[in-house]
UniProtKB/TrEMBL annotation:
InterPro entries: NRAMP_fam
Pfam families membership: Nramp
Tagged with keyword Electron transport: no
Signal peptide positions on this chain: none
Native organism taxonomy: Bacteria, Bacillati, Bacillota, Bacilli, Bacillales
Transmembrane segments: 37-55, 76-98, 110-131, 143-161, 181-201, 222-244, 271-295, 307-324, 330-354, 366-388
Cellular compartments annotated: Membrane
Keyword Nucleotide-binding part of the UniProt annotation: no
Membrane topology: Multi-pass membrane protein
Keywords, alphabetical: Membrane, Transmembrane, Transmembrane helix
Protein name: Mn2+/Fe2+ NRAMP family transporter
Length: 396
């Protein structure tokens, strides 16, 4: 029974991380970059997957061995650092959650014709119901698994109907015509940046799966999370590539919707509604849950009323969306911010991996340290480059 429970939690953590990554921004970015890079976007996806795995394995293993949340680890590395990271994570999580709620509104608009504001309220209500349940963790695991599987099946169907040039995609994945640094930063930041990389790690800690003995299972769960998110991205890439390669033009106001519609007609448009709503709701759940785990250490009342704090986070996100609409400029800034938060959080984790007062007698694999250090340097450089290039657009 315990083995089955652990397997369910490990799978749930993988899906929580994956579905936290697969939100409205994920769908839009993948479609837009496919339109601009065509088959060469496959190379960006490949590089991002490798970097994502390096980040995820380092973070999840140190969290598990230390049996502490990321902010507590950071405070042990340098007093006050955990507070700074928590503030950055919560600001980024709230900003993205506003976009997630808005994306859910678009999904329900495509499905039922309701306004995006009404759709956002429906999505928020669904997410809130999950945290009103006594066994919220188990329900969250099962809910993200079901919607995650649904998204994968629908993505495969749309990719098949768009008839993409698979051979060209494979060739360009290893020999691209163009390499886009901003695209790589955006994908890595959107998959394991900000709060996302900690979603599954904190979920496993809350479920009691921790310690050195659990490392093999945790490693599989971490890689599975990246694999699931990447699988969805690959099939969306192929679907968009099939449409673009036919010379069809995507709607700049809603690129993902036009991919589904051009690939599979009106049925495709309804499928887009299902995928967008599913992606957005699971991202709302992941962002709210993980952001609140970063402030649990600040006050005992947050631990006692954690689910109510999560619900409040969702309500605030929804109210902001309804009040000001989709904050496109905020989302651009948050995307760049994620690229900068990642080197800070991963760098902190790598330092913690060699402090005995945090990890005891655990020996962190040298290859993971080297890989993680490489990711820190590369993402810091590329994140700075992206921020400098996007700031003029942000305030223009």
């Amino acid at each position: 029974m315990k083995r089955e429970r652990n397997w369910s939690v490990l799978l749930g953590a993988a899906f929580l991380m994956a579905t936290s990554a697969v939100g409205p921004g994920f769908l839009t970015q993948t479609t837009v970059f496919t339109q601009t890079l065509a088959a060469s976007f496959g190379f960006v996806i490949l590089i991002s997957i490798l970097l994502d795995i390096g980040v995820q394995l380092n973070v999840w293993r140190v969290i598990a061995v230390s049996e502490k949340r990321a902010q507590d680890i950071a405070n042990l590395v340098l007093p006050g650092l955990g507070v700074l990271i928590s503030i950055l994570i919560v600001i980024g999580g709230l900003t993205f959650n506003i976009g997630n709620v808005g994306g859910a509104g678009l999904g329900f608009n495509a499905l039922f014709g309701v306004s995006s504001e009404v759709g956002a309220i429906i999505a928020a209500a669904i997410a809130i119901v999950i945290f009103l349940v006594k066994e919220a963790g188990k329900l969250m695991d099962r809910f993200t698994q079901i919607l995650g599987f649904l998204m994968i099946v629908l993505m495969i169907y749309v990719a098949f109907t768009s008839s993409p040039p698979v051979g060209e995609a494979v060739v360009k994945t290893f020999a691209p015509d163009k390499i886009d640094i901003i695209a790589i930063v955006t994908l890595v930041g959107g998959t394991v940046g900000g709060y996302i990389t900690f979603a599954g790690g904190h979920r496993l800690l809350d479920a009691g799966i921790k310690g050195k003995d659990a490392l093999p299972s945790i490693t599989r769960s971490a890689v599975s999370g990246i694999g699931l998110a990447s699988l969805i991205r690959i099939f969306l890439f192929l679907a968009a590539l099939g449409v673009v390669s036919q010379g069809l033009t995507l709607d700049p106001d809603n690129p993902p919707a036009s991919v589904f519609q051009l690939a599979a007609g009106n049925v495709g448009y309804k499928l887009f509604g299902i995928v967008m709503a599913s992606a957005a709701i699971t991202s709302v759940i992941g962002a709210a849950y993980t952001s609140v785990t970063f402030i649990r250490s600040f006050h005992k009342g947050i631990v006692k009323y954690e689910n109510w704090v999560i619900i409040g986070f969702i309500v605030v996100s929804t109210l902001i969306f309804i009040s000001i609409g989709k904050p496109v400029k905020l989302l651009i800034l948050a995307g760049a911010l994620n690229g900068l938060i990642l080197p800070l959080t991963l760098g902190t984790i790598l330092v913690a991996a060699y402090k005995k007062n945090i990890i005891g007698d655990y020996k962190h694999p040298l290859w993971l340290t080297i890989f993680g250090g490489f990711v820190v340097v590369v993402m810091a450089a590329m994140g700075g480059y992206t921020l400098i290039n996007q700031l003029p657009q942000l305030f223009s």
